[in-house]
Each structure stands twice: as structure tokens, then as C-alpha cells.
User: Fold Tetratricopeptide TPR_1 repeat-containing protein from Oceanithermus profundus.
Amino acid sequence: MILFWTVVALLVLLAAVYATLPLAREPEPFPSDPLPEELRAEIEALKQEARELEGSERKRTLGRIVQLERRLAELEGRPAVPGARRVSWVALMVTTAFLVFVGGVLLRYTLPRAPGETITTSNLISGERTVDRAKLAELNRLKTRAERNDDAESWLAYGNAAWEVADYNAAAEAYKRVLDLDSKNLTAWKRMGILFFMSGFPEDAAQVLQVVVGVDPNDTEALLFLGNAYSMLGRFDEAISVWERYLAVGGPDAERVNALIAQARAQQEAKAAVDRGQVPAGNVVYEVKCAACHGQNGEGGIGPRLVGNPVLRVDGAVAEIVNKGTGSMPAIPMSEAELQALLDYLKGL
Assistant:
């Protein structure tokens, strides 16, 4: 084993030296930067071209526009770049030592994993809380017991432990098996309803959680997510009613739910304005459609920071993202008038 780790350390060292060798060579002259006027001309030409393109070609062109916008911002705002200089061997050796240290730390804390652990469970992080190995070992023990006993009680214990460490795939598997064995288990139904909501199926979530709340009207967890599902479906009156019930029975996250109620009422006002043929102001559209993920003032949150984001300078790129979604962000339905009001508002961030 010692020989194995010695070989691994040597390989890391050799890779680090090889990676830093180019730094010791005589630097090659860089081509001169393009003038801002040239970049502006190219950006305008690409914008004209993007209006006539569709699909993947349009996305590539919009991406190029964003890159050039960034470059233009750098050219207009940065100081002159100092000349390249030769890197000393001392700097190379310090860099190499640092890389070897980092490699050793990674090897120490990522390998080996305990038998039966997955990458997800061995490195599981929930928010800012790293799940300790004792909980993960207990999770594996409960899974083994559930597979051996194959009864509702064992699977429920495993599902609850997986839920506790945010391993939602394992939790879903466990709760499904609970319902196969005991179709009236309220905890399993509740958690499956919440998982439907988290997976982007609010209608299914609402149907399941309505049943749970009908049986236990004081279950604050079910009330919270039933309100969330109603809100996602645009059923704001019902969402507010459910959240007010949550507050009345002493739900633990009153501040968050009061904010959700305020947001739902703002959404009602925006919807009423649209129904009257009025276009809501851009800040209202932003608060209703975007603030939950991107922050009240565009400072970022679940979604990326919008303040100062160069993407906002390209209307076509923003509209494409809003209408079709990107990455983990879903498409956000809104009218053309709402979209234009939002685009105008975002330019002022």
C-alpha cells in the first residue's frame, strides 16, 4: 500500500512539473488587442446576423456576442497590461510544491471510501453542512436492514435517514417501497409529494399533498409545500390560504412564509393588471418572476448574480434564456409585453 501511494505521489509531482514547464520558457509576443471600435462593429454585425438565425446557430452567435461584450468592457475599463516577464525557477518550485500538497490532500480525503458508499454519500454536503461519516454509515446500515427485512417500518427508517442527509434519490426509492408495502403511510405520501414538487411536477405534488393535509391539517411541512405547489400553478388564493394555515398552527419558518405570502399577493396584482390589459412595470415582473432565485435586487441567490452581468446587455440572449430556459433554470412563461418590461428593467441593474 505504501508503494502504491508513493507511486501516486510521484505521478502527481511529474504531472505538476510538466504542467508548469511552459512558464519557464521565453514568452512569445501577444498580438495587439483589437480597438474598441472594431469590437463594437463586430458586435453590431453579429446582432444583425442573430436576428436572422434560429436554433443552435442563434445560440452560438448570441454566446459570441456575450464574449465580445465582456472583452469590450475589459478594454474600456482596465489599465494597460504590463509586459510579460520570465518566471523564475523559485516560483516554479513553489507552485510545484503547492500542487503536490493539494494532490496529497485530495487523495487523503477522497480515497478510499467505505464499502458500499457512493460518491454522493461519501462527499455529501447539505447547504454549508458537511454530513459526517457516522450518519453515512448509519444510512448504509439502515439500507441493508431494509433490504433484508423488506417491511414498511425498515424502509421508512431508511427513507427518513436518506432525507436527513439530502440524498433524495435514495429517499424516493425508500418511500416508494414503503407505499408498496403500506399504501396508507402518511409520511411516505407527504415526502413523495414534496419530491414531486422538487422535481418540477407541481400539479402531481398538489394532488398528493392535498390528501395528506386532508388527513392531518396541522402538518406544517405538508402545508408549506402544498402552498408552494399552488403558487407555482398560479393558484395564488389557495397558496395564501394554505400558508396562513401554516402560520396559524405555529409553523417554524414564519419569516419565510410571510415573504411568500407577500410575493403571492404581488403576483395576484400583476395578474390582475394583465387581465385589465395593463402591462405591469418591469420591477413588478422581476419581483414576481425572478427575485426568488436571483435576489430581490439582482444580487444572486439560487440563480446567478444579475447586477453587472454582461448577458443583460444582449436582449436576444436574455429573451432566449427566459423563453427556453438554460441549465437548471426552467423556461419562465410571460407575455411579450411583460418580457419587454423585464428587459428594460434589467438594463438598469
Observations:
- The chain is about 70% helix and 0% strand.
